[in-house]
Amino acid sequence: MLDPVQLRTFLAVAEAGGFSEAARRLALGQSTVSQQIRRLEAAVGRELFARDTHRVTLTGDGEVMTGFARSILDQQDTVMRYFSRPELRGRIRLGVSEDLVLGRLPEVLRRFRHSHPMVDLELTVELSAVLHDQLAADKLDLVFAKRGSGESGMRTDPLVWVGAPGLRLDRGEPVPLVVYPEPSITRTRALESLRRNGFSWRIACTCDRLNGLRAATLAGLGVAVFAASVVPDGLGELVDPLPDPGSVVFALTSRRPVTHGPVAALAEVIGSYPWPGTA
What we know:
Blueprint: H1 4-16, H2 19-26, H3 30-44, E1 49-51, E2 56-58, H4 60-84, E3 90-97, H5 98-101, H6 105-115, E4 119-126, H7 128-136, E5 142-148, E6 155-163, E7 175-179, H8 185-196, E8 201-206, H9 210-218, E9 224-227, E10 236-237, E11 247-254, H10 261-272
Parallel strand pairs: 3-4, 3-5, 7-8
Antiparallel strand pairs: 1-2, 5-11, 6-9, 6-10, 6-11
Helix pairs in contact: 1-2, 1-3, 1-4, 2-3, 6-10
């Protein structure tokens, strides 16, 4: 491995055209400069300077070495600049429920990236209950997803029944439902509210992705329950009254307390964002 000090001395001699001037520029003794050049020549096994009583000139190998030396020193400077910068670095395993991903989350992540460009994200999009299970299994560092309304969180959102524009339910038939598969907080709330109020129902469509639920609901296959702030485009609240499905809490949860580092920084950005809904 070539000594960067020797490479810098070599370039100084090459640019100054002599050992004396290079020593002056480097604030070193001329003997020290000569010794470093001899050691560099010994390391590469080539003569880099042609010397006589009047001048010092680069040999052919010395000309080649100037390019290598500059490249090596530039790479070293780049490495040192990278690791000396104060920015946060690391990787965050973030889990987010899909309705948030298709809502305000892109703007939140844009803000975080602007403030902390060296932090990498591993984003997992799943049902809220699945995300909390993965967090408990230490497969995620931070989860932003729905919780039950009795738990604490960043904001509380009412749940609403939605359907395709103009959809009217047949009072004599079971309520057709478009739902996430189990485990799903909104599915559980929908079924509990219907059961508690004596309504019959049937599962008209099940899909584990929000776009699929939206498509099925827009097609009139049935009605769905969503948090009011994340109702997909094209769907509207039902005119026909159905039992109040209650509310959910959007919570930011980590497996262990975080007070510093990348996870804490992301939690701060998510927590300070002006999310719609009641805090």
